[in-house]
Amino acid sequence: MLFFHSHNKEKTKKITIPTVGLLVHYAFEGNTNDSSVNESHATIANIANTEFVSGYDGVSKGLRIIGNDSSISTLGGHVVLPFLEFQDYEGYSFNFWYKKERVGYNVSHGEAIFSIGLEGGTCLQIFQKNNWVFRIANNGQWYSLGSHQAEDTSWNMISLTYDDSTKTFKIYVNAQLINTLTGTSLEPVTYKHIFLGRHDWGGGRGNSTRLTAVYDEFFIYNRALEEQEILGLYGS
Fold first, then answer.
1. DSSP bridge partners of 211
2. Residue by residue, what is the 3-state secondary structure of the chain?
3. How far apart are CA 156 and CA 78, in angstroms?
4. CB–CB of 68/207 below 8 Å?
5. Averaged pLDDT score across all residues of the chain
6. Which CATH number is associated with domain 2-234?
7. What is the CA radius of gyration of the chain?
8. pLDDT at residue 152 greater than cutoff 90
9. What is the pTM for the complete model shown?
């Protein structure tokens, strides 16, 4: 475990970072470097439409991506993560802080907060519409992992875990469990792309980057984090 303190105007939080199974950690402190031992650095796409701003604790930095108002375009800022073979392990977890500003074009169409794979094929998505939509697709067949109505323009910590031994997905918001789905798994992803603020479809010929939002402290693990570990990341 690693420990550090997060400061804001109201209180100081002691953050506990689990190190077992850590695949990547993007702190977004002025760059998209991976601070884990794996050094799987991410890439900013359309850097003119991104900037580093105040992070979730009001002291550290976060990465702001600036989307566009086009229905189909890659002109908006987004982040490309190196593809990790996360499905080769006993499970996986994604944990990060997120603050929405707006969705361009049409909020009912939405945009991916976080996307793996290809829509219309096999993918995992956390999608920003009027609410957050958590979902996977296996060969075009959608499965809902739940949804959540979050307060706009405020910081929230999102956690998604999967335990392969029980075929169980769990969704947490601000370290509170909001949904559990058992008996479903994500089939092997063949379109090996991971994005923040973008999703692809039609064999990758179509894509959009309509989201304007800020990200901070992004983690990927090769196992399902326990609830106490998620509480530690939240600073409870």
1. 103
2. CEEEEEECCCCEEEEEECCCCEEEEECCCCCCCECCCCCCCCEEECHHHEEEEECCCCCCEEEEECCCCCCCCCCCCEEEECCCCHHHCCEEEEEEEEEEEEECCCCCCCEEEEEEECECCCEEEEEECCCEEEEEEECCEEEEEEEECCCCCCCEEEEEEEECCCCEEEEEECCEEEEEEECCCCCCCCCCCEEECCEEEHHHCEEECCEEEEEEEEEEECCCCCHHHHHHHHCC
3. 19
4. no
5. 91
6. 2.60.120.200
7. 16
8. no
9. 0.93
Give the residue carrying structure tokens 């980057």: 209
Which residue ranges make up each domain of the chain? 2-234
pLDDT digits (tens, 9 = 90+) for 136-147: 999 999 999 999
Tokens read off for 11 = 């209180």
Tokens representing 194 are 């991971």
Tell the residue number behind the tokens 């930095």, with chain if given: 61
